[in-house]
TrEMBL record:
Species: Paspalum notatum var. saurae
GO process terms (BP): phenylpropanoid metabolic process
Catalytic reaction annotation: (E)-4-coumarate + ATP + H(+) = (E)-4-coumaroyl-AMP + diphosphate; (E)-4-coumaroyl-AMP + CoA = (E)-4-coumaroyl-CoA + AMP + H(+); (E)-4-coumarate + ATP + CoA = (E)-4-coumaroyl-CoA + AMP + diphosphate
Cofactor requirement: Mg(2+)
Gene3D superfamilies tied to this protein: 3.30.300.30, N-terminal domain of ligase-like (3.40.50.12780)
A Pfam family recorded for this sequence: AMP-binding
Primary enzyme class: ligase
PANTHER family: 4-COUMARATE--COA LIGASE (PTHR24096:SF298), LONG-CHAIN-FATTY-ACID--COA LIGASE (PTHR24096)
Name of this protein: 4-coumarate--CoA ligase
EC number(s) stated in the UniProt entry for this protein: 6.2.1.12
Length: 558
């Protein structure tokens, strides 16, 4: 049973009796869980009546092609009818989607879910071999692709091209019908693939109620203009693009293959964007553009942009400070979540939380959290770091076909282990320290790579940095750094080692003077200069690749 209100600290949401943190956000009405209801049906019920006929639901930023709200709903219904009549798509069928961002993709997602099919989007830049692995996990009966990606799919899989006349005719000649698929909220709605940065990819099963809870947690409709410069196959972009259906947002889609900071900001001005959703590498690109060209700052100052949302990977506090110095009128809204939690379950909201640099805000509606000791599993009080565990209606159904992997991360009481080292302060604000699996173990000491990366990125001659472990017989693991130098910089390895050694904090968080002994186990032992840091679509550093490269480079010197 949940604790009674007097047992919960109104400041932090912490209950000392259960050692559990509770969300203090305002509740959002959810339908009874046993009521048959698909996510699209729930989402469309939240749209205002009458629909804003003159406003676009979707806009392609590259072509300026708009899809007005009535056309969006009409397309979803017509496509749903075509899926049933032409393709024989039935409830429970898995539909694999291998296509770049475009205005047809959110329509397809909603149409598939409305007939009870399971949407399974994947990165269109994957190789045929990588696609084959994902297909083996989800076993789809139909696929949706474009001409450029269809060749990566096996010839025996029924495939529909989104850029073909046959698909487009579904919107023009599709007959809407009143056939309603019976969909339970507990039924699978989507299968997304975990990033695989710390292990092999897994197929994460999300239910219709998971998606309902995720969107409910973000609050009521505001009708803002939201630009997505994040992939729609990733949980971040996947859930955000569905906001068009739940919140009457105009969703502007960044459809270019490469992120161009100036082009994105030009689109912000052109379409009256109020909120921009980015991954951390894109945030860095915007900061660089602003630092190199004052006209970028001036252009944003005259726009409607109010906030930038970001998440998906750790973000250095220094990068946030650099952004705020250039764009003081734009709020930074960091969020945190996993594919396994249907995207974010905590987020920054309001000026007070936005000012807490480096935090990911407070728990969203419906969320409970515990901070536990990574080895003993004992729950810890506010302010003490440990593994973050979370529970709520947004937690996944499980990994498809992998009971052992599911039970290893999700217990019988619904608690999900995030695998992240975090702490929650006395105000209920959450701070992410690092991935537990990515902590570098030096003679029993734990070194968070993100801490060293944040420090390195404060150097004016460093554009980007990554820290990974290198095996050592005596120490166990040594921190080594990969550095992207600023254009024209002559930075050397010795400079970087000295820079880190002089600025490392002691156990109390105090910086050392140049004459003080430093925390020896956090020193950088090797430095490698590279042109770029390899990252996945969400902006997470591909540490496994860098760790292998470090071994190769060091061994080649021996």
């Amino acid at each position: 049973m949940p604790p009674s209100p007097p047992d919960v600290d109104p400041r932090s949401g912490y209950c000392a009796a259960t050692k559990t943190f509770h969300s203090l956000r305002a509740p959002f009405p959810m339908p009874p869980p046993d009521r048959p209801l698909s996510f699209p049906a729930f989402a469309f019920s939240l749209l205002p009546r009458p629909l804003p006929a003159s406003r676009a639901a979707l806009i392609d930023a590259a072509t300026a092609e708009p899809v007005p709200f009535p056309a969006f709903l009409s397309r979803v219904r017509a496509l749903a009818a075509a899926l049933r009549a032409r393709l024989g798509v039935s409830p429970g069928d898995v539909a694999f989607v291998l296509a770049p961002a475009g205005v047809h993709v959110p329509v397809l997602y909603c149409a598939l879910m409305s007939v009870g099919a399971v949407v399974s989007p994947a990165n269109p830049s994957l190789t045929a071999r990588e696609v084959s692995h994902l297909l083996a996990l989800s076993n789809p009966s139909v696929a949706f692709a474009v001409r450029a990606t269809a060749g990566k799919l096996p010839p025996g899989l029924n495939t529909v091209l989104l850029d073909s006349p046959a698909f487009l005719s579904c919107f023009l000649h599709g007959e809407e019908d009143d056939t309603k698929a019976i969909v339970q909220q507990s039924d699978p709605a989507a299968i997304l693939y975990s990033s695989g940065t710390t292990g092999r990819a897994k197929a994460v099963v999300l239910t219709h109620r998971n998606l309902m809870a995720c969107n409910a947690a973000r609050g009521p409709a505001t009708g803002e203009v939201l630009m997505l410069a994040v992939p729609l196959f990733h949980i971040y972009g996947f859930t955000f693009c569905l906001r068009v259906a739940t919140s009457a947002h105009t969703v502007v889609l960044h459809t270019a293959r490469r992120f161009d900071a100036r082009a994105v900001l030009a689109a912000v001005a052109r379409f009256g964007v109020t909120r921009l959703a980015l991954a951390p590498p894109a945030l860095l690109a915007i900061v660089r553009a602003a630092e190199e060209d004052q006209t970028v700052v001036s252009a944003v100052a005259t726009t409607t942009l109010q906030s930038v949302s970001f998440g998906g990977a750790p973000t250095a506090p220094e990068l946030l400070a650099r952004f705020s110095r250039k764009f003081p009128s734009v709020s930074l809204m960091q969020g945190y979540g996993l594919t396994e939690t249907t995207s974010g379950f905590c987020r920054v909201a309001g000026e007070e939380e936005s000012a807490r640099t480096g935090s990911v805000g407070r728990l969203s509606w419906g969320a409970e959290a515990k901070i536990v000791h990574p080895e003993t599993g004992l729950a810890l009080p506010p302010g003490v770091p440990g593994e973050l565990c979370v529970r709520g209606p947004f937690v996944m159904k499980g990994y498809l076909g992998e009971k052992d992997s599911t039970s290893a991360i999700l217990d019988s009481e619904g608690w999900l282990k995030t695998g992240d080292l975090c702490y929650i302060d006395k105000d209920g604000i959450i701070f992410v320290v690092d991935r537990l699996k990515e902590l570098i173990k030096y003679k029993g000491y734990q070194v968070p790579p993100a801490e060293l990366e944040s420090l390195l990125q404060t150097h004016p001659d460093i554009d980007d940095a990554a820290v990974v472990p290198y095996p050592d017989d005596q120490a166990g693991e040594l921190p080594v750094a990969f550095i992207v130098r600023h254009s024209g910089s002559y930075l050397h390895e010795a400079h970087i080692k000295e820079f880190v050694a002089k600025q490392l904090p002691d156990a109390m968080g105090n910086l050392h003077t140049p004459h003080d002994p430093v925390v020896h186990y956090k020193r950088i032992h090797h430095v490698f200069f590279v042109n770029s840091i390899p990252k996945n679509a969400a902006g997470k550093i591909l540490r496994k690749d860098l760790a292998k490269l470090a071994v190769q480079r060091i061994n080649s010197k021996l």
